[in-house]
């Protein structure tokens, strides 16, 4: 009887461990899903912001395409950095880094 | 065929005007009020009979509480406890808004960019002001990435600033675009069901599947919005 109980306990413990492992994996997948969903918009939003800054500065200094050009290029760069960061799991956006991470 | 965009039309239910500004009570406002009403009812019901073995409603609100508490704890840490009410309110409001939109004949207020943009701007200003308030001038060190040579800084700082300013846009567009695209798609497929007669079974099946997907998206987008808020707050509070 005791042997049987012990055996049962062992099997139950194994199953429980397996279950929690699966749960953890599921949780992780779910969190990743959110990251994938957002990377497309990251690229575009930086360009939109740069576009508005460029247009505003051009309007202010009456220097039509100069600032628009400069800021659009910077905007593309910022968009790529945004996507790069979110994909690299460095964190999400600007300046978000893990503690021991030297690489940008 | 039914117009797929028609469902997003704002209708004035109670026309109001204040100093020549239209502040009418619209169907959007109605559904925002409904979301808050349902959240309040849910939370009130759950604390009516407090017990060690929770009732159904108590279980629901305990799940909500634990979900948000874990999110705040994991992402911000101890100092984030002050912001729990904000995060909780934000999450439940967005979740109920998205989920109410899944009911037939209802209106999804998160499918209008102005709603999500105002929320995102509020968070953006909150995070920026909080960062400046806590860290003072040091907060702008956020724009100077680590390990970048001095020569590159004039190029990197504008890029970082643009990247920082793009946050409210990506935050708001993500939620709005997902909700609007999903609801439009549902409506387009629904519009094919009756005209196709017996073959309408195919778009009907697609619609059933899409509804399930939309419920997932509704939850996921509320989750993403809140978790990003947590990350931004974390950055402002625990500046590295």
Walk me through this protein's architecture:
The complex is a heterodimer of chains A (104) and B (240). Chain A is mainly alpha-helical and 104 residues long. Chain A has 2 helices and no strands. With 240 residues, chain B is mainly alpha-helical. Chain B has one domain (6-237). Chain B is 66% helix and 4% strand. Chain B starts with 11 loop residues before the first strand and ends with a helix. The interface between A and B is medium-sized, with 32 and 30 residues.
What's the average pLDDT of chain A? 75
Number of domains of chain A: 1
Strand share of the residues of chain B?
under 5%
Q: In DSSP terms, counting alpha (H) and pi (I) runs of 4 or more, how many helices of chain B?
A: 6
Tell me the major beta sheet of chain B. Answer: 2 strands, antiparallel
In short:
Chain A is an all-alpha fold.
Structural features:
heterodimer, A: 104 residues, mainly alpha, 2 helices, 0% strand, rod-shaped, disordered C terminus, B: 240 residues, two-stranded antiparallel sheet, two-stranded antiparallel ribbon, 6 helices, 4 strands, globular
